[in-house]
């Protein structure tokens, strides 16, 4: 079994309890307009350039290819062409054994901090068979968590709940229309899987990205607080918008057009959650 990974962070402090190794899976079923990991979205291997130290010589672009839709993409030849080594490949295939060996090599350190491994993305459930194979190898040997947008069929979601120890679950928009507009997919599966998670007894945390004028509105957060409370949840984490989100798009030669005013201050509205008896913590 092999899976496609775009990054591994060795000692992460933000992706679950304790110190964690975070494994970022490539591929996501959503296309959130605020996504700060655009290189995570497509399953295919991509090449990305960093602006730091760029000479502006354009050699990487000369080696780029043009797709049928007219978009330009850096290539393996762009990596070779850059005199400053600023172009890197994004997407490596790992076997279950190779990835688990790497995780287990750090297991005792991670465990000593109360941590473990977190499978993130992209969306790890998009490569469910590979994810399950890893979780089965790691079961009982290191604490395992998944960070998910929840967009998966019910059977896949039940499968991951059986195999992992902890879930970080993102909730974004309660309106199906707005979810389609800003994330390019319906939210029915996401809400249904959240109900399943809350009823399962599996330890989890709800995380809400606060996007100015999109997810941080009184209307959205009131509907979310009511929904979350209905499932018996009394704690959520609020993640204010990362204003650096746009910078990575240029590295992929993609335009960044988020469709909202990035410079508008984020509204925290923790009082809305408090009204429903939910503690909301800004991260
Ligand atoms: S779910 Fe996460 S990784 Fe996927 S598009 Fe949205 S922000 Fe990006
Ligand atoms: S990324 Fe490298 S090849 Fe491309 S313009 Fe900058 S220095 Fe030149």
Provide structural commentary.
The protein is an alpha/beta fold. It has a single domain (2-29, 95-243, 261-282), classed as TIM Barrel, CATH 3.20.20. It contains eleven helices and 13 strands. It has helices spanning 59-62, 76-81, 96-105, 107-112, 128-138, 154-163, 176-183, 188-200, 218-230, 247-251, 270-275; strands at residues 2-12, 20-25, 46-49, 65-66, 72-73, 87-90, 92-95, 116-120, 143-148, 166-170, 204-210, 235-240, 279-282. The strands form three sheets. The protein has a nine-stranded mixed beta sheet with strand order 7-1-2-8-9-10-11-12-13. Helix 5 (128-138) packs parallel to helix 6. The two termini are 36 Å apart. The relative contact order is 0.15. The model has no long low-confidence stretch (mean pLDDT 96). Bound molecules: iron/sulfur cluster (SF4) (2 copies). The site of one iron/sulfur cluster has 14 residues, from helix 1.
Attribute tags:
alpha/beta, TIM Barrel, nine-stranded mixed beta sheet, two-stranded antiparallel sheet, 11 helices, 33% helix, binds iron/sulfur cluster
Task: Give a quick rundown of the structure.
The chain is an alpha/beta fold and 283 residues long.
Number of domains: 1
CATH architecture level-2 label: Alpha-Beta Barrel
Roughly what is the average pLDDT, rounded to an integer? 96
The CATH topology turns out to be TIM Barrel
Structural class: alpha/beta
């Amino acid at each position: 079994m092999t899976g496609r990974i775009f990054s591994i962070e060795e000692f992460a402090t933000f992706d679950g309890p304790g110190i964690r190794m975070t494994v970022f899976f490539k591929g996501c079923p959503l296309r959130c307009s605020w996504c700060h990991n655009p290189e995570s979205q497509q399953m295919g291997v991509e090449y990305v350039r960093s602006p730091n130290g760029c000479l502006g010589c354009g050699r990487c672009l000369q080696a780029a290819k043009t797709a049928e839709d007219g978009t330009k993409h850096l290539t393996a030849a762009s990596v070779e062409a850059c005199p400053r080594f600023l172009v890197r490949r994004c997407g490596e295939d790992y076997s279950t054994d190779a990835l688990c060996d790497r995780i287990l090599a750090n297991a005792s350190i991670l465990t000593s901090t109360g941590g473990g491994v977190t499978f993130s993305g992209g969306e790890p459930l998009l490569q469910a068979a590979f994810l399950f194979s890893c979780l089965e190898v790691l079961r009982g040997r290191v604490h395992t968590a998944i960070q998910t947008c929840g967009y998966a069929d019910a059977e896949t979601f039940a499968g991951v709940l059986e195999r992992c120890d902890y879930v970080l679950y993102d909730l974004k928009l309660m309106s199906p229309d707005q979810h389609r507009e800003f994330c390019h997919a319906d939210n029915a599966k996401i809400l249904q899987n959240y109900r399943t998670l809350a009823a399962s007894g599996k330890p989890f945390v709800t995380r809400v990205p606060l996007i100015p004028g999109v997810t941080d509105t009184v209307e959205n957060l009131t509907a979310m607080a009511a929904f979350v409370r209905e499932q018996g949840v009394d704690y959520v984490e609020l993640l204010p918008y990362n204003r650096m989100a746009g910078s990575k798009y240029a590295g992929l030669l993609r335009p960044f057009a988020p469709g909202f005013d990035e410079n508008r201050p984020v509204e925290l509205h923790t009082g809305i959650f408090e009204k429903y008896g939910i503690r909301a913590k800004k991260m």
